[in-house]
Every structure is written in structure tokens, then in C-alpha cells.
Design a protein that fits this description.
Blueprint (H helix, E strand, L loop, with lengths): L4 E2 L36 E8 L7 H18 L2 H6 E8 L3 E8 L16 H22 L7 E6 L8 H12 L4 E6 L5 H7 L7 E3 L4 H17 L6 E2 L10 E2 L2
Parallel strand pairs: 2-3, 2-5, 5-6, 6-7
Antiparallel strand pairs: 1-8, 3-4, 7-9
Helix pairs in contact: 1-6, 3-4
């Protein structure tokens, strides 16, 4: 695989407006929309997590462990705890487990396997969350880094995914977000390659190394949070001795 460079975006400045608090936000000193108390730039990330029946057993257990570790590592960093924002969507069915909330207020869900794999609908919902969050940042005059959407799945879509694939590629090409695709176990990598941006093909998780994956993600978000919007950030390698993905 590769070590990439992350290009970040700054949000446009508008008059400072306090937007309505999302329904699922958490009331904390540095909560979801407390921009007056925490005007720091935001580093948003949407987790799209497959919780279909095929994740039963070790896969879902290791995913839950990884999410808990993700939270611990982010809040251990004073800057990331204020700037990193996490939203979680599971499928299926498609469920917004939590809307965007800063790492300090993020509560890792305890997931259980259920349902099928409506991946296309989950991707569209994730893109909608990102668009809405960016609008909120702009209304509040808060700067932000380019959002990440991180898809983790062990299967193939059970719904129509072609429209979602087009939305992913168009959004990535326009710089609206960065989309990452991770296949687990018996994931259909051919289908995932049709969804993933051509510049960032899907990668295969090495076994069930969810903890290593989320450790990498937290380290990346800590680095991005400590930088300045618009600054390039060198991303750690995802393969090799310290990586979590299988090389092609």
C-alpha cells in the first residue's frame, strides 16, 4: 500500500450563529455544538459500520474493543479531544447511532449483529451527515478539516449501491470528503472496488486487527487535529509491521 498526504479544507467564515442542537447530541462543556465554549477547528469523521449477521462472534467483539480503544486514545490527546468529531452509522438497518460529537463526549456504542447489509443507503446517509455538518460549521463561523467517511464491512451490499458509488466518487473528486473503504474477512472486494474512489481503492483488514485499525485512525486524527486547516499531513503506513491492512 502507501503513505498518503492528507489535504485539509478550511470552512468559510460567516457571522457567528448558534445553530440548533442536533437531537442526538450530548450536553458537555465541549459538546456537539458548543462553538462559543469551544471555537477550535473541527476534524470530523463518520464511521459506517457493518453490523449484519455475518459479523456475529469474534468480528463484532473485536470491533467493539476497537471502538472503545479509539475513544481512549483520542481523549488522551488534549487537542484531539476538543477538535475530533465522530458520527457513527450502523447497517442494517441503517441507524444513526450518534450524530457528530467531539471526542470528549463520544460514547463508543456496544454493537450487536443484526439484519442484512444495506450498504448503499448507509453511504448516502453518511454523505448527508457530512453535508449537514459542514453547513453547521459555516453558519457558526467554525473552521474545519476535510471530513473523512470510513466504511468497514465484511460483506457486499444487499441494496442498490450504484448511486452511492457515484456519490462517493463525485464527492471525493470535488474535495467534499475523503472516503476510506475497509473489507473484513469475506468482504466482496470486487464490489467494494466499484464503490471506493479510484484514487483510494479498498483495503483488506489483516485478520481481525480492529484495534490496530482504530489505533491508526486515532493517531491520524490526532495529527490532523494538531495541524492547521489547509496544511498537508503525512499519514502513517497502513501495511507492513506496524500496519493493519493486507498488502495486495
Amino acid at each position: 500500500m502507501y503513505i498518503g498526504h492528507d489535504h485539509t479544507f478550511a470552512g468559510e467564515h460567516f457571522g457567528r450563529i448558534t445553530p440548533p442542537r442536533p437531537k442526538n447530541s450530548v450536553q458537555t462543556p465541549f459538546g456537539t455544538d458548543n462553538f462559543a465554549g469551544n471555537p477550535d477547528p473541527r476534524c470530523p469523521c463518520v464511521l459506517l459500520l457493518d453490523v449484519s449477521g455475518s459479523m456475529t462472534g469474534d468480528p463484532i467483539q473485536q470491533l467493539n474493543i476497537g471502538l472503545a480503544q479509539f475513544k481512549q486514545e483520542l481523549v488522551a490527546d488534549q487537542i484531539a479531544s476538543r477538535r475530533a468529531e465522530i458520527a457513527t452509522i450502523t447497517f442494517g438497518p441503517v441507524t444513526v447511532v450518534n450524530d457528530f460529537v467531539v471526542a470528549e463526549a463520544y460514547e463508543p456504542p456496544v454493537l450487536s449483529p443484526q439484519g442484512d447489509t444495506p450498504m448503499g443507503a448507509a453511504i448516502i446517509r453518511g454523505i448527508e451527515l457530512v453535508q449537514g455538518r459542514k453547513a453547521t460549521y459555516k453558519e457558526a463561523g467554525v473552521m474545519y478539516f476535510r471530513p473523512w467517511i470510513f466504511l468497514i464491512t465484511d460483506g457486499a451490499p444487499t441494496d442498490a449501491y450504484q448511486g452511492a458509488a457515484m456519490a462517493v466518487r463525485e464527492g471525493e473528486a470535488a474535495g467534499k470528503f475523503s472516503f476510506w473503504t475497509v473489507g473484513v474477512s469475506n468482504a466482496n472486494m470486487q464490489v467494494l472496488s466499484e464503490i471506493a474512489p479510484t484514487t483510494r481503492p479498498p483495503v483488506k483488514l489483516d485478520g481481525l486487527r480492529f484495534r490496530d485499525l482504530f489505533s491508526w485512525l486515532s493517531a491520524t486524527m490526532r495529527s490532523r487535529s494538531a495541524s492547521t486547516p489547509g496544511e498537508k499531513v503525512l499519514l502513517p503506513a497502513i501495511t507492513g509491521p506496524a500496519g493493519w491492512a493486507v498488502s495486495d
